[in-house]
């Protein structure tokens, strides 16, 4: 009877997870960089080291969702990787974010030597180095990454008042991100009196890879802020990635999955040219595959439960 009860609870929880996961929106993709491009490099062995490393990282995320490192070796190639989730991020949201990043990398960057991907809530970096090389490749995956995206919504109608407010907010977030208690992350909002003499708000986040020193973090954040102010001035939102740091702002509250209860309202960002269609196709394929796998597990457990019930009934009849 205990086996029946535990099996029923497991099946029920699995079914609930499948049902709930379909209602949870995927975290927005903010930046993706692959080096070299998938069309110019192919692995010479049958095993895909990128997939192996990603599987290891995402499986460890079930246990430690804050900061995870892993490495794996194939012949003379050593692959290094780490993943981090935003401080305060719910473990389930972290796992979903990690799976989304995994599927994106496998679909768009399966043969790359270096990959870095920012989602709203998590970051994954992968890099490869030769075993006989003395060169330090730890930062190669993000060293040359420089991306930006501005809101596709209508331009801000009050730039004279919003620009100083945005500058003040970004300066505050840049100062806060290096506080020891913030773990490389800061978020906040600022209100200003708009042209209609009512309050408007700007929301922002700054996030860095936690392995950076305070000096490195401040440098990269400063460069990302410069990109935002140059490319997204007068816009209602924008995202800039420079190296291992990300800066984002929006006139709508956009914190995905945990800082506030609001959903990702800043999801109207334009995706970098040429990535949008492939990302959507890759994510759809990946999550359809995951849903089918979960459904097969559910069917198998239901069959085992039915078989157990029949066997117990037979034993009861014989007794």
Q: What does it look like?
A:
InterPro entries: CRR_secretory_protein, GNK2, GNK2_sf. Strand 7 (185-193) and strand 8 form a beta hairpin. The strands form 2 sheets. Strands 1-4-5-3-2 form a 5-stranded antiparallel β-sheet. Strands 6-9-10-8-7 form a 5-stranded antiparallel β-sheet. The protein folds into 2 domains: 25-144, Killer Toxin P4, Chain A (2-Layer Sandwich); 146-271, Killer Toxin P4, Chain A. Helix 1 (2-21) runs antiparallel to helix 7 (276-318), helix 2 runs antiparallel to helix 3 and helix 3 packs across helix 7. The protein has helices spanning 2-21, 49-60, 91-108, 140-143, 159-176, 214-231, 276-318, and strands at residues 29-35, 67-74, 77-85, 114-119, 122-130, 146-150, 185-193, 199-208, 237-242, 245-250. The protein is elongated. It contains 7 helices and 10 strands. Residues 1-22, 37-41, 131-139, 260-302 and 308-319 have low confidence and may be disordered. With 319 residues, the protein is an alpha+beta fold.
Major sheet size, sense and barrel closure: 5 strands, antiparallel
Instruction: Report the portion of residues in β strands.
Output: 15-25%
How many helices does DSSP assign? 7
Rg value? 23 Å
In one word, what is the shape? elongated
Question: Which structural class best describes the helix and strand composition?
Answer: alpha+beta
Q: Could you tell me the number of beta strands? A: 10
Order of helices and strands: HEHEEHEEHEHEEHEEH
CATH architecture classification of the largest domain: 2-Layer Sandwich
Low-pLDDT windows of residues: 1-22, 37-41, 131-139, 260-302, 308-319
Helix content: 40-55%
CATH superfamily of the largest domain: Gnk2 domain, C-X8-C-X2-C motif
Tally of structural domains: 2
Strand arrangement across the biggest beta sheet: 1-4-5-3-2
Indicate the CATH class of the largest domain. Answer: Alpha Beta
Distance between the termini: 17 Å
**CATH topology annotation of the largest domain:** Killer Toxin P4, Chain A
Whole-number mean pLDDT: 70
Signal peptide: 1-21
Transmembrane segments: 284-305
Family: Belongs to the cysteine-rich repeat secretory protein family.
InterPro entries: CRR_secretory_protein (IPR050581), GNK2 (IPR002902), GNK2_sf (IPR038408)
